[in-house]
Amino acid sequence: MINYKRKDNYSKWYNEVVIKSKLAEFSGIKGLMIIRPYGYSLWEIIKYNLDQILKKTGHNNAYFPLLISKSILSKEKEHIDIFSDGCAVVTHNRIKKNKNEQITIDTKSKLKEELIIRPTSESIIWKTYKRWIQSYRDLPILLNQWGNAVRWEMRTRLFLRTTEFLWQEGHTAHASKKEAILEAKKILNIYTDFAKNFMAIPVIKGIKPHMDKFHGSDITYCIEALMQDGKALQIGTSHFLGQNFSKAFNVKFVNKNGKKEYVWATSWGVSTRLIGAIIMSHSDDKGLIIPPKISPIQVIIIPINKQKNILISKLSKKILQILTEKGIRTKYDDTDIHTPGWKFNEYEIKGVPIRISIGDNEIKHEKIEIFRRDTYEKVLISIDNVNNFVPKLLNDIQENIYKKALNRTKNLTLKLDNYNEFKNKIKNSGGFILSHWDGTEKTGKQIQEETEATIRCIPLLSGKNKQNGKCIYSGKKSNCRVIFSKSY
RNA sequence: CGGGGUAUAGCGUAGUCAGGUAUCGCGCCUGGUUUGGGACCAGGAGGUCGUAGGUUCAAAUCCUGCUACCCCGACCA
Questions:
Q1: What is the C-alpha separation between A162 and A151, in angstroms, rounded?
Q2: CB of residue A362 closer than 7 A to nucleic acid strand B?
Q3: Hey, what CATH class is A299-393 in?
Q4: Tell me, in Å, how far CA of A27 is from C1' of B35?
Q5: Is nucleic acid strand B under 7 Å from A340's C-beta?
Q6: C-alpha separations of A26 from A113, A206, A231, A287 in Å
Q7: What is the model's pLDDT at position A217?
Q8: CATH: 3.40.50.1820, 3.30.2350.10, 3.30.930.10, 3.40.640.10. Which one for A10-70+120-282?
Q9: What is the mean pLDDT of residues A398-415?
Q10: Distance measured from the CA of protein residue A29 to the C1' of nucleotide B20, in angstroms
Q11: Which of residues 131-170 of A touch strand B (CB under 7 A)?
């Protein structure tokens, strides 16, 4: 049972759901979490599906080292600011036992040059690209890496911001600015579709204001989603890096006219934060609700009193086989440790979309009870119809939770031109507020101080967004609305 | 990095003010009965009370220092 309710204490509810659903737990070291098998299988499914899409669009996976030398990381001037995030540094390479049999660092083993645990891999990759790229014929390089990174964050939260996180980071190199920008936008669209089609999360595409862009990028594109408590969460970014890294690492190519040019670059990523977004977008006071397309278990079959009637386990196994053959991730929980009631609760907390229970009633009436997690509805379906009904129901659930999230986002997205109204909205209901902004960092900071809301992005609304107006705070000229929200 | 909280069995906790045999629930082990919404009975195992020191005949409890984690905020691809 989940003790906290969303409306009473959202962040305690969130923690309780993560832990009781067995997605992850605290490791005992600040900011480092243990991703449990259930959570990791969810990540594997996300990873598998996104990986397929990236491969279909021509990207290849590679792997670069975890440790980066300090000197390489310092090449790109702006990029050094990433140090301000805090990094983990390797300074020694040996440990030894002291008199009390305790482990100490062998001070004689101090490294001449410290190594940084990658906070992101642009530097090592661009150092490598210098060797890989000579001619326009070597371009584009469309490379992706699945791995981990470490950022020494002050304030951590399970999945949303952990010291170590798992992610994919794409790093591409192009012969022209136009092509690189197209790539960055293409990835943004892939992320958007992935969020919608797999995770059932509607997002807003946008550009980060200049003061919030990634250090070392020219344009930072992002997707922002709205959580159930009215706060925004950035769930993916795609950067047009311009020639910043190619200049820092002196990566030039010879173009068709025989002239040398600096290479154009992008980088982009999504992380285990996606799992946090899924939890906060869909789940309810009873626990997780996982979108069927990515749910590690799509259907759970629970037998009732199977000891009394051998037909119960026979029918259960038959249904398991039918659904498995249909490609549905189905689990038959025939353990004797717990009662059916315990299992009902357990798989509800875990957010399994469909539950089938099979007992004497099902045998007698040749109909089985099907329960859907998102609405709590139960229906009886004849056994012959199961193989058609279940896939359709999985789709219905996927669509339903997307619609729910979409409606919530729409209802909490408002255009406002009055600052008092703005303050009230942010304070009371949260949500995305579309308002004019004069483009200055100072105004952004003032608004943040007074309301806790920040500029999430300048939305890309295919021209519709161009509209002259006055900044909601300063009253100065503005030619488009930006999205303000409190955020994670 | 500022503020708050916590640390007792695998987990969650009582006991701390007022020093005197380590509390309860879950879980675990054995046996039996159960099983349609977190089953029940009987028996059993499990503890450097975060850490270092101090006061005392006696410390989970009082005093001092330290450490770790969690929460809130600031920061933040």
A1: 8
A2: yes
A3: alpha beta
A4: 36
A5: yes
A6: 33, 33, 24, 19
A7: 94
A8: 3.30.930.10
A9: 97
A10: 38
A11: 151, 153-158, 161, 167
Q: How much is the average pLDDT of A152-157? A: 93
ipTM of the assembly?
0.94
Q: Hey, which bits of A62-157 come out as E strands?
A: 67-69, 89-92, 95-97, 103-105, 110-117, 141-150
Residue with nearest Cα to nucleotide B70 C1': A30
The pLDDT tens digits of the residues spanning A287-313 come to 999 999 999 999 999 999 998 899 999
Query: Has this prediction a pTM greater than 0.95?
Result: yes
Q: How far is the CA of A296 from the C1' of B44 (A)?
A: 39
> If you ran DSSP here, which 8-state letter would residue A326 be given?
T
What would the 3-class secondary structure string for A354-415 be? EEEEECHHHHHHCEEEEEECCCCCEEEEEHHHHHHHHHHHHHHHHHHHHHHHHHHHHHCEEE
CATH architecture label of A413-485: 2-Layer Sandwich (3.30)
pLDDT-derived band at A463 (thresholds 50, 70, 90) equals low
Rounded to an integer, the average pLDDT of A326-348 is 96
- What span, in angstroms and rounded, lies between the C-alpha atoms of A82 and A66? 16
Whether residue A322 contacts residue A386, with contact meaning beta carbons closer than 8 Å, is answered with: yes
A298 touches strand B (CB under 7 A): no
C-beta within 7 A of nucleic chain B, residues 25-64 of A: 26, 28-31
Strand B proximity: list residues 193-222 of A with CB under 7 Å.
212, 214-215
Separation of CA A343 and C1' B38 in angstroms? 8
Q: Is the CB of A334 under 7 A from strand B?
A: no
Q: So where are chain A's domains?
A: 10-70+120-282, 299-393, 413-485
Q: Which residues 446-465 of A interface with strand B at a CB distance below 7 A?
A: 448, 452
3-state SS, residue A225: strand
**Does residue A31 contact residue A156 with C-beta atoms inside 8 Å?**
yes
Which positions on strand B lie below 7 Å from a protein C-beta?
1, 28, 34-39, 68-77
Q: What's the Å distance between residue A31 CA and nucleotide B7 C1'? A: 18
Question: Averaged over A411-416, what is the pLDDT?
Answer: 95
Could you give the 3-state DSSP secondary structure of residue A476? coil
